Amino acid sequence: MNFNFDEIIDRRGTGSVKWEFVVTGGTWAYTDHADPQYGADRVLPMWVADMDFRCPPAVIEALANRVEHGIFGYTAPTASYFDAVINWMKRRYGRTVKREWITLAPGIVPAVNMMVQAFVSPGEKVLVQPPVYYPFFSAVENNGGEIVSNSLVIENDHYRMDFDDLARKAADPAVKVAILCSPHNPVGRVWTREELTRFGEICLANDVLVISDEIHCDLIYDGVEFTSFASINEEFARRSIVCTAPSKTFNLAGLKTSNVIIPDETLRQKFEQALLRNGLKGGNTFGLAAAEAAYTHGEAWLDGVMAYIQENYRFMEAYIAKHLPQLKVIPPEGTYLVWVDFRALGLDPKARKELMMKTAKLYLDEGEMFGPEGEGFERFNIACPRSILAEALERLKTAVFSG
Ligand SMILES: Cc1ncc(COP(=O)(O)O)c(C=O)c1O
Predict the structure, then answer these.
(1) In angstroms, rounded to a whole number, what is the distance separating the alpha carbons of residues 235 and 209?
(2) Which tens digits make up the pLDDT trace of 136-190?
(3) Burial letters for 296-335: b for 16+ Cβ neighbours within 10 Å, e otherwise?
(4) How far apart are the C-alpha atoms of 319 and 392, rounded to whole Å?
């Protein structure tokens, strides 16, 4: 089946966070992206992680059928929902997941917040690996925990974990939890089985619970293999929590439906109590219908979208090499996010932001948001029609050479 990922779909007027909001003072503020702060011309958004593509036809059909039914009362996952998730995990990753291990959550960010509430007492510590998805910082800090950074190391445009530093930091008895971003947002690494094994062994030896956020696990480049942390061995499965969702994979983030997989019953009960304390039991009527259809019928679409995204990446890499050789692209192994090193331009964060927003009219995610380790970088979301990506790169080139 052919899918038209080149089609430009106007998302304005739908409440799209990417197209109609900006981050101001730590929250989302509505804007038409032509406000006085940034000048009259519209800013092209390539920031928040969703796609500018229509989701799989089977999902749209399932939602239409659900709308047609006309009753949208309280909804919870049925056997067919769980089977769709379980079959997906088995088919794609060879992992056997039991139905009772899966708890539904209204998003991975709320789930991680509740995990901190469940497993970290005030003053205790949570290890993260910056530069990393910034809501991890707020999930820990807003719930009374303290961040410990096991910074990633960059060598020859390739990021790796610092295991010596990890071993030192995990040995602190106050460190109770480690959040693994796998695949890693923003640097695009898909951790190897060996890396995950070393990471897991260090955490387990120090009785540190691993939260493996695998929300990007289905978005893997050709020739790269994703390994789920819990699939490595039974001990890793028992001492970890895996977070997955159809939201990045099939572009369903607004439907607020994700899965938290916890084989250990005691851990699972603690997490479920946190869900109850926050009044979050049950599911989103449309999210459940969409997720089931996506996991059951969405594979061909996913193959298509990943081929298109990889072509976008090759286009971007070639363009930057030719026209903007001062910038360095970090080659991704997964996700539709691309991490680019702007340090050679010698701009401080404020000057770089001005260059992006005022001169280039491009809204990217500034590297500093992902921790001080991200200073001098920008994150591009390339899940968009190629003509939009081409325009973004043209804008960037013009801005860099006019500045
Ligand atoms: C690593 C990671 N975790 C979680 C999320 C968001 O999860 P949710 O929308 O399910 O809260 C994102 C979104 O970009 C992400 O990159």
Answers:
(1) 11
(2) 999 999 999 999 999 999 999 999 999 999 999 999 999 999 999 999 999 999 9
(3) bbbbebbebbbebbbebbeebeebbeeebeebbbbebbbb
(4) 11
List ligand 1's pocket residues with C-beta within 6 A.
Answer: 49, 107-109, 133, 181, 185, 213, 215, 245, 247, 253, 258
All structural domains of the chain, each given as residue ranges with its CATH number in brackets, are 17-56+300-402 (3.90.1150.10), 71-297 (3.40.640.10)
- CB-based contact 70:261 (threshold 8 Å): no
Structure tokens that stand for 371 in this block: 């921790």
Q: Does residue 71 contact residue 62 with C-beta atoms inside 8 Å?
A: no
Determine the residue of 51, 136, 185, 255 to mutate for testing ligand 1's pocket, defined as the one with the most ligand atoms within 8 A of the Cβ atom: 185
Given a cut of 80, whether residue 24 has pLDDT beyond it is: no
Q: Among candidates 360, 370, 365, which has minimal Cα distance to 393?
A: 360
CA of 250 to the centre of ligand 1 (A): 13
Nearest-CA residue for ligand 1 atom 14 is 49
Q: What separation in Å is there between the alpha carbon of 357 and the centre of ligand 1?
A: 24
pLDDT digits (tens, 9 = 90+) for 217-235: 999 999 999 999 999 999 9
End-to-end CA distance of the chain: 45
Question: Rounded to whole angstroms, how far apart are CA atoms 240 and 340?
Answer: 32
Contact 117, 274 (CB under 8 A): yes
**What does the alpha-carbon distance between residue 157 and residue 328 come to, in Å, rounded to a whole number?**
8
Whether the CB-CB separation of 58 and 296 falls below 8 Å is answered with: yes
Please tell me the distance between residue 256's alpha carbon and the centre of ligand 1 in angstroms. 11
Phi, psi dihedral angles at 114 (to 5 degrees): -70, -30
